[in-house]
Amino acid sequence: MALAFDRGRKVRLLVIPALFDEANKLRRQTINVMRRLDLAGIDTFVPDLPGCNESIASLPQQTLAIWRDATVEAVRNFKVTHILTVRASAMLAPDGLPGWAWAPTGGRQALRGMIRARTIAAKEAGRPEKTEDIQTLGRTEGVELAGWQIGAEMFRDLETANPAAHLIEIPQSDLGGPGLWLRAEPDEDAGQADALAAILSVALELKP
To answer: In terms of residue numbers, what domain contains 46?
Structure first.
């Protein structure tokens, strides 16, 4: 399954969504950017990665390799010309496909934030957990973090995965405000969506 703004135009952008706990927080903002790019004459596609959203695949069975293969297949299926990754999904970008990384982060950083959230929640619930114990559990059996069942292989993958080096970084500071992933609940920001769409439109030599 994929959300698509497809009018058969020349420029076709694959958008790989944010991962794990940031997925829900940034989905609406990502779609707002896609709507603006549609108006600018750019086709966009955001796929459901295996185990996510409408996918019937088992989430705990997923690995970064499976998600990378799925991204490559999406590139072929939609015949895209460019890619935009969102936060940690920069780890999934195929080699050789030009594009951009919006506020990219690596797997270790993604894990750190989710583990910290789990330790805080556990402490507030009166059953404190140690970071080291969560990491050991994640590496050996898999672990639930921020409501996501992360398998042991995925956990180990994330500990060493880095954003793709060939993408052009779009730092959050270029969008005129703090990242929406820092907020407690999913939200949107029209100004930031305008800014990101304009950056991409100009880079693709189209009017914003």
So the answer is: 2-106+163-203
What is the rounded radius of gyration, in angstroms, for the C-alpha atoms of the chain? 17
Specify whether 30 is located in the same domain as 91. yes
**Length of the chain counted residue by residue:** 208
| Cα distances (Å, whole numbers) of residue 33 to 65, 108, 118, 155 | 27, 27, 31, 30
- Residue 81: closest CA among 15, 31, 1: 15
Instruction: Compute the distance between CA of residue 198 and CA of residue 137 in angstroms, rounded to an integer.
Output: 43
pLDDT in tens, 114-123: 999 999 999 9
Residue 208 included in any domain? no
Is pTM, for the whole model, over 0.90? yes
Residues 51-74 pLDDT 10s: 998 899 999 999 999 999 999 999
